[in-house]
Amino acid sequence: MIAAAPTMSAPAARPGSTAIRTPDLDESVRWYQDKLGFRLLATRNFVQERMATLERSGFLLEIHEVDHPMPPGSSSDPQTTAATRAPLVYLLVPDVDREIRRLRQEGVEILEEPGDDLEGEYRTAQIRDNGRHRIELREPLSGDVSFNSVGR
């Protein structure tokens, strides 16, 4: 790994991928396609599980079908799982307020109304998916938006 020169600032971290667990793969794939506009890239069938890979705006989401969302005593990041025992998924969106209005009309559970984060970097809101995973929608507040809101 090469360190950047002191005068260069590193780009802001952008979410790239995550994985979640669900008891019903087909239902979760449909939910992410219908509610959040993900597209299905691949599905795989294994002996003990099925999984799907979805994509939205360059963000990859792997959904694994398992008996329960998170086994007791798992070693996931405690900061993102403390409240619900399910990981928190972060998605960049071009307009959080518009996205929340649309999702509310579609009956999606809104956990946190839109508001600016304490650092003033993002406008955020939280929703819950059909499998009880928390999803934080993030709209960058700076003019430096380096994500493609419509995908590839």
From TrEMBL:
Residues 1-21 are annotated as: Disordered. PROSITE patterns: VOC. Pfam families: Glyoxalase. Residues 14-140 form the VOC domain. InterPro entries: Glyas_Bleomycin-R_OHBP_Dase, Glyas_Fos-R_dOase_dom, VOC_core. It comes from the Bacteria. CDD domains: VOC. Residues 1-15 have a biased composition (Low complexity). This is VOC domain-containing protein.
